[in-house]
Each structure stands twice: as C-alpha cells, then as structure tokens.
Amino acid sequence: MKKFGWVIVIAALAIFVVYHFNVQEQNTNLKNALASQYSNQLNSASEKLTELSDSIDETLIFKDEASLDRPLQDVWRLSSDIRASISALPIDQETSSGWMNYLTRIGNGAAQVRAGKVPIEEWQTNMVDARGNLRSLSDQWAFTNRDDGNKDYIVTSFVQNKLSKESQKNWKSLGASVKAYTESDFPMTASETDQQKKKDLQHISDEPVSVEDVKEKFAKFFPELADAKIHVTESGKDAPYPFYHIEFHKGIRIGYADFTKKGGHLLSFLMERPFDKNSIDTESMKEKALAQMKRLGFEDTELIEFRENTIAWHLAFARKDAENNAIVYADGVHLKIAKDNGELLGLNAMEYIQEEKIASQKIVPLDYKEIFADDLKIEEEKMAYVENDELQQRLAYELLTRSDKIGTYKVYIDAETHEILQSEKLP
C-alpha cells in the first residue's frame, strides 16, 4: 500500500514537472515572439525616419505643384506609418506623445501644402532643420535595438516593460530631444499658446480658498456625504495648477473629489460602492442627472448624449453660450449615474472649467441649395461652436443631413465664412 502511495506521489510530481516545463516553454515562446515583434517595429520606425527625411529633401528641391505632389504625399504617408509603429511600443507616455506631436505636425504640414493652405516657401523654411533632426532621432533609436535586436535586452525593456535605469535615462533623453526639436521647428502659434494656458487654468482669477471653505463646499454639493470621514491634501509644487484633493469614506462608499484652490471649483468626483440588480428607467435617470447638474451649479448646460453599461449611465453635457444659446462642445461636463438608484458616481468638469475663449463672429445666412446635392435633406439645424484647423472656436451651423444614396451625415459649416469645418457619417 505504501509503495502504491509512493507511485502516486512520483506520478503527480512527474506531471507537475512536465506541466511546469510546458508553461515555461510557452512563456519563453511568447517572449521570443513579442521580442521579435518589437525589434521589427523598432527597425521599421528607424528606417522610415530616414525615408521621411529623404522625402522631405525632395520637397526642398521643387516649387511647382506637379513635382511636389508625390514627395509631399510620401511625407504624409511615412509620418503616419511611423506614428503607428511608435504607438505599438510600450514606451513612456511623455516620449510617445512628443513623437506623435512632432510627426503629426510634419504630416499635417505636408497635407496643407498639397491642399494649397500653406505656401511652399513657408514649408521649406521649416523643413530645413527638421530633416536633420529626423536623421538624428533615427540614430538615437539605435540604442533600443542594439546588438541587432538582442533578445534579452528587448525582452527586459519591452516585453516585461521594466526598463533599467540606464534605459530609462536613454528614453528620457530621446523624449527631451524630440521636445526640443518640436519647439524649435514648430514654435507655438497664438492659438496653441491659448490652448496651453487654458489647460493650465491660467484664466482663473478667483481668490484662493481655504481647506475649511472646500470642506463646506463638499458638504453642500454632496449632502449625503456631509458626515463622511474626509482627508484633504494639497497638490504638489510640480502640479500645473493648485488644487485640493479630498478622500472620503462613509460605510460602503469610498471615493475622492478635487477642487481648484482658486475659487474652489469642482474639478472631479468619483465614488465606488456595491450595486443592486434593479434598474431605474431612462426618464428617471435623466431627471436625476439634471437635478445633480443644477445642484452642482452647471445649469447653463444641455444634455448632448448618453449611454449605458451594466452598472451605470454615462452622460455628456455641454455649455450653452449666453449670447446666442449655441452649444460649446469643448466646454463639457461628464457624469456617471448609478443604474440602480440614479446616485452620482462620477463627474469630470475639467473641460467646463477650462472654458473656451469665444470671439465675436458674424452670422451669414446659408443657402443649402448652393452647398448640398439636390437629393439631400436637412433633418435638423442648430448652432454650435467647434474647432477649426487653427484650434479656434468658430460658430457653426450644425446640420443633420440625410440622403437615400449615402445615408446620414452631421455637418458643421462656419456661420461666417461657410467653410466646412467638420463632417461625419452617422450609423
């Protein structure tokens, strides 16, 4: 009997060893496959950077439209291809964003020259330095794929996504390089400067509020949490703008809320708790959401859209301009409402607080027959503010159009110049 027991133990051990080695082999095969994939993407990105530089060289040779068309198209295509390669790599967000921004500017610039929106002379002036910078950046890619794609290095750096201190330093250096090139080759326009100021909430001129002021405002906005245990901290010195962070806990409910230090404006709110299986109807959900918006002081908004998942409704609101009642889509508030009882679970008011800078603008009547095909019907018309290519908010006709041939489209037309700002096909 004892011998039989030992046989079972040994058999089980053998099965475990075989299983363990099978799993190890599968993991090794997976790592090797991923390492090969990342190595190929790194090689591809580096080679295309050189090709992109060569294509830019061609755009510096010619000045007539016919000769420029193909190299400009190559610049646009290659910049898009390289962005796809970079987006597939698990590198840090700052470096990836810097690369995307730089390549997007080059690709968009080429497209605008082809469309006649940017003079070729302006493009050629900007590209003199950019072509050299691209070759320099291509050389810097080499460290990520050293030793001809050494498997151990690729696995450590990308597959496991744990870069060594030296590799981290190299990536930071690469990110700093592309940032410097972007700033020198593509200085910020006035519109982009305004965008950055808006993101950093530099327009808020309210007096700073105290911790006690924020606690009172939290209790006013969320009376059901007035007796919750809360802990308040201030943002660090490196934060783009000063704010208070409130953590709260009451029974089964835990979460946080952020308020700006200047003026005590509510930036965000998030709460977690268990959910019941019952669900309120759509109309009740809308009523509760509108009541929440009124209580929080966002009364000058309109419900734009909503969707649901298994536990919550997600709603998007946008501010209405006080002068003409047009919807400012960029000034949005996002809500998350519980499906079981309509309780507020989340809110993000950053876009609303950033508040777009709206310039005065004429409204020129639009003759639809001059713009649209004869069989196209206008199903709905309203006014809204949307961005143009220069990142400026423009008052536009928002038109819901339908054609039996091509389906339904939403089109935004500048109310003054009648330029087509945006168009999208709807399901």
Automatic annotation (TrEMBL):
<keyword id="KW-1133">Transmembrane helix</keyword>
<feature type="domain" description="Sporulation protein YpeB PepSY1 and PepSY2">
    <location>
        <begin position="169"/>
        <end position="355"/>
    </location>
</feature>
<dbReference type="Pfam" id="PF14620">
    <property type="entry name" value="YPEB_PepSY1-2"/>
</dbReference>
<feature type="domain" description="Sporulation protein YpeB N-terminal">
    <location>
        <begin position="27"/>
        <end position="114"/>
    </location>
</feature>
<dbReference type="InterPro" id="IPR048402">
    <property type="entry name" value="YpeB_N"/>
</dbReference>
<feature type="transmembrane region" description="Helical">
    <location>
        <begin position="6"/>
        <end position="23"/>
    </location>
</feature>
<dbReference type="InterPro" id="IPR014239">
    <property type="entry name" value="YpeB_PepSY1-2"/>
</dbReference>
<keyword id="KW-0812">Transmembrane</keyword>
<dbReference type="Pfam" id="PF20769">
    <property type="entry name" value="YPEB_N"/>
</dbReference>
<protein>
    <submittedName>
        <fullName>Germination protein YpeB</fullName>
    </submittedName>
</protein>
<keyword id="KW-0472">Membrane</keyword>
